[in-house]
Specification:
about 40% helix; alpha/beta; 12 helices; binds 1,6-di-O-phosphono-beta-D-fructofuranose; two-stranded antiparallel ribbon; TIM Barrel
Length: about 270
C-alpha cells in the first residue's frame, strides 16, 4: 500500500513546507466573504494568486472544480460542506465521491469533521467509507478537524485543538487542518499529538493587521506545523497577491516576521 502521507508531502510540500489556498467559503459562509475584495468571487482570481505566489495547492468544492479548475496548481477536492444558513448541531455530509474527485483532477481529498457535535457519529460513519475509497484510489485524505457543538465552548482552546489533532490521527488522516491555539507552545503540543500526520494551520477570519496574521504563521511554523491552509487572510486583503508572496517568503524562504515587515509596509 502506498504511504499516503509521503504522497501528500511529495505533491503539497515540495519545498519541505506547505501553503494551501482554501476556497470553499462560498458554501461554508456564503458570498458575503467576498465583499471585502470582490475579485475573490472569481475562482480564476484564486487560481492566479495560488499560481503566481507559488503555493502548493488550492481547495475547491466540486462545482468550482468542474467549472474552473485548470490543473495549474494541485487540487484538494473538499468532499463535504455545510452552509451558514443551517442552525442545528453541526453536520457536514459529502456532496462528491472520491472517485469523482479523482476524475476532476484532485491530488488529495478533504473532509471536515465536527467532533463533539451530536452528529459526530454520522460524520465518522461517512468518513469510514471515504477513507476506504481514498485508499482504493490511492489519494491522500486531508481532515479538517474542527470540534464544534456538544460540550465544545471554545474551538481554539489549546486542549480542544490538541484533541482535534489527535482525533484526525486516530481516524486516518494523511494530513490535517486545525485551528491555531494562539501561541507556539500550546500549538506544539497539538502538533506532537498529531503524531506522524502533517499539520496545517487553518487561517481563520481576517486579522485586523497583516502583522497579526504573520505572527500566527511564525508561531505555527515554530511549533512544527508543516504549513498553512489559509483562505480569508489572503484573498480578503486588497493586495492579496503581494501578501501571498510575503507568506511564501516566510513559509518557504524561512524569513521571520521582522524580515518581511519592511516589504509589507512599502
Ligand atoms: P480560512 O483560512 O478563511 O479560515 O479558511 C479555512 C477554512 O477551513 C475553510 O476551508 C473553511 O471554509 C472555513 O475555514 C470554515 O471556517 P469555519 O467553519 O470556522 O467558519
Amino acid at each position: 500500500m502506498t504511504n499516503l502521507i509521503e504522497k501528500f508531502l511529495k505533491i503539497f510540500a515540495r519545498r519541505g513546507r506547505s501553503i494551501i489556498l482554501a476556497y470553499d467559503h462560498g458554501i461554508e459562509h456564503g458570498p458575503t466573504d467576498f465583499l471585502e475584495n470582490p475579485d475573490a468571487a472569481d475562482p480564476e482570481y484564486i487560481l492566479k494568486i495560488a499560481r503566481e505566489a507559488g503555493f502548493d495547492g488550492v481547495v475547491f468544492q466540486r462545482g468550482i472544480a468542474e467549472k474552473y479548475y485548470d490543473g495549474s496548481v494541485p487540487l484538494i477536492l473538499k468532499l463535504n460542506g455545510k452552509t451558514s444558513l443551517y442552525a442545528g448541531e453541526p453536520i457536514s455530509v459529502a456532496n462528491c465521491t472520491v472517485e469523482e474527485a479523482v476524475s476532476l483532477g484532485a491530488s488529495a481529498v478533504g473532509y471536515t469533521i465536527y467532533p463533539g457535535s451530536g452528529y459526530e457519529w454520522k460524520m465518522f460513519e461517512e468518513l469510514r467509507t471515504i477513507k476506504k475509497e481514498a485508499v482504493k484510489f490511492d489519494i491522500p485524505l486531508v481532515i479538517w478537524s474542527y470540534p464544534r457543538g456538544g460540550k465544545v465552548t471554545n474551538e481554539t482552546a489549546p486542549e480542544v485543538v490538541a484533541y482535534a489533532a489527535r482525533i484526525a490521527l486516530e481516524v486516518g488522516a494523511d494530513a490535517m487542518k486545525i485551528k491555531y491555539t494562539g501561541d507556539p507552545k500550546t500549538f506544539a503540543w497539538a502538533v506532537k499529538v498529531a503524531g506522524k500526520v502533517p499539520v496545517l494551520m487553518s487561517g481563520g477570519p481576517k486579522t485586523k493587521t497583516e502583522e497579526e496574521f504573520l505572527r500566527q504563521v511564525e508561531g505555527a511554523l515554530e511549533a512544527g506545523a508543516l504549513g498553512i491552509a489559509v483562505g480569508r487572510n489572503v484573498w480578503q486583503r486588497k493586495d492579496a497577491l503581494k501578501f501571498a508572496k510575503i507568506l511564501a517568503e516566510m513559509v518557504y524562504g524561512g524569513k521571520k516576521v521582522t524580515d518581511v515587515l519592511p516589504e509589507l509596509y512599502r
